[in-house]
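Fig. S4 source data, part A: sequence.
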Amino acid sequence: MSSTGFDIRRIGGRIGAEILGVDISGELDPTITAEINAALLEHKALFFRDQELDDAAQIRFASLFGELTTAHPTVPSVDGRPNILPVDGDEGIRANQWHTDVTFVRTPPKASTLRSLVVPPYGGNTLIANSAAAYRDLPDALRELTDRLWAVHTNAYDYAEPKSEKAAEHRRQFVSTKYRTEHPVVRVHPETGERGLFIGGFAQSLVGLSPSESRDILRILQAYVTRPENVVRWTWAPGDLVLFDNRITQHYAPDDYGDLPRLLHRVTVAGDVPVGIDGTASRIVEGDEAAHYTPSAA
């Protein structure tokens, strides 16, 4: 029980907690917001069941944690809601690979909120992984190497062939502006000082290494992120909201619900420029600052 009266119930050994006894649909006392933020820093992903939220309430809740981004650097928002990205399985938006949101720009989001509108009767879960625990799991020799590595993140690479014209159109929108950014493979969390593996699906190569060397090393590191003990799995119900720290997690939505409908709305909080353990900040290789997406870009 927190000092403000709501429960924080851990649901994973290394990541994830459910918040019970707080209604996030209205105005929240600043002390409650501060405790939720502290829980987010500790547990990396927070889950809220049975919330009566509409788009405006989701936007209001997300804005408690900082300035909001627009929906996406390249993909259109929900009509009339420039801060909301529709995550619609019917539109071919099935993020069935491990990733951290929008790491191909210099200032990826600080945090993401996902709210369920339509959920399938089976499948369609969301998995979230703790990249700080993954870093701590590394053997010393591998950690020493990883501390020095930088990765190139991009939204334009060899994707699998789209399964429908809707999916193909979404892919064309997604890569309509090409971004390439170099980020440290080990990112220092700006609030906690924790070190985490900052890689995922948009990390396509390692600076100074060949494509085959990059793939092999990234595959090894990614295997630590997605170890079962570092992952929490959330089974959606209508009205749920998930809040996760995008600076120190990855997530994955398995494409295991066939042709059934699944619709979430995503609102993200603008983030800062990632910094490595030597204090060096991320740098743009191709594209721009994406200021239309990250208004707080540092």
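Fig. S4 source data, part B ends here. The radius of gyration is 18 Å.
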